[in-house]
């Protein structure tokens, strides 16, 4: 594996350069860029969902590789097609050519060809990073990627504050174009083992996972969760930029705060997931994510600073948990061949993204000029989307309880109970089981007496203490 040490180093720099330009396709930076090209809320909604929608086409990755004849060639060709498109943005801005269809086509092609890059890269990189080194290696790679993202987020927000807005936008898109080409060149320099270049004749069948009851429950959860995210996601930035006109540098600083906190939380959540299960971590992350739409519903021109500061912290705790756990949970409940399950998940998430972005976009188009008064207080029509998004996120975490996965109760010492001095063990489970469907109804007469419950608890504590002493 020392032969591919150069490739492992190049992959780290590729991740940094990719994130340096990709950060410009997210959040308030992309919303500002889209508004410059006269994009409507519907177009913004569709464009921000393209990367998720494009995952539906991963089922054709093997066919694309067969047509091109090599996984390495397929990786490089798709990378150059998808990433060099961003060179056109500063050209159009310089000549003041504005059309929402320009940026729509660029993001569409970037997402479509980019999905083949991600799929092929995942297969190839597994061949050059030994299994026992993957945790440390990908942790280092993600940290470096996050650092470059933080630096460029700061610079992009600084450029957008230039007195000459066109100059600032030219600088943003020029840097994006440079790093997009650099990332494609670095991919071209990668070396991969010959055995990883072999093109498999395996044919995907996304219908197989639907016969698995537990995975079917997971797909139902994924559809609702993906719908909830894509329904409301574009309008957080739209509300900040187009309605409240918040300072770009302040938005950039809040994004940096979230990224810095997330770097440390990835280490914490990794340990928690290994001990208590990815499902518990994911449930916690989704619950914390529900705070964002509620805070945006309450946010206005007079209190946005404090609310965005709190939201930056909550977002770090929520999304670092979600990003870490959701893919791990997918792998945990998938059966072999896992490609079928991953493809089915991508298809469902992409379908939900289409429905969510279209429905959210049409609603936003009708609400963008509406003002609503509730108990004498004014609210912008867009803020109704946040309330709907909040409700759907709650529904998704309830649906997650139907998925069977490794879960271990969280233990704590009851410091607020009378027994605290005795350091008796207590166990808690997140109360999501209360919402499980098809639960057997228990008559009151069938419930155990309080005395029996107390004895059972005491016996369980003795067994637990004995087990811990043995360990």
The H/E string reads: HHHHHHHHHHHHHHHEEHEEH
Give the CATH level 1 class of the largest domain.
Mainly Alpha
- Report the strand count: 4
CATH architecture of the largest domain: Up-down Bundle
Weakly predicted, low-confidence segments:
412-435, 437-451, 465-471
Helix content: 55-70%
Task: Return the structural class.
Answer: mainly alpha
- Total DSSP helices: 17
* Main β-sheet description: 2 strands, antiparallel
For this structure, the CATH topology of the largest domain is Growth Hormone, Chain: A
Fraction in beta strands: under 5%
Average pLDDT metric: 82
Globally, the shape reads globular
CATH superfamily of the largest domain: MFS general substrate transporter like domains
Instruction: Report how far the terminal alpha carbons are from each other.
Output: 38 Å
CA-atom Rg in angstroms? 24 Å
Q: Order of strands across the widest beta sheet?
A: 1-2
Counted up, domains total 2
Topology:
Elements: H1 5-22, H2 27-36, H3 41-53, H4 61-68, H5 71-83, H6 88-94, H7 100-125, H8 134-159, H9 165-188, H10 213-243, H11 248-276, H12 278-289, H13 291-298, H14 304-333, H15 338-367, E1 371-374, E2 377-380, H16 383-400, E3 410-413, E4 425-428, H17 450-470
Antiparallel strand pairs: 1-2, 3-4
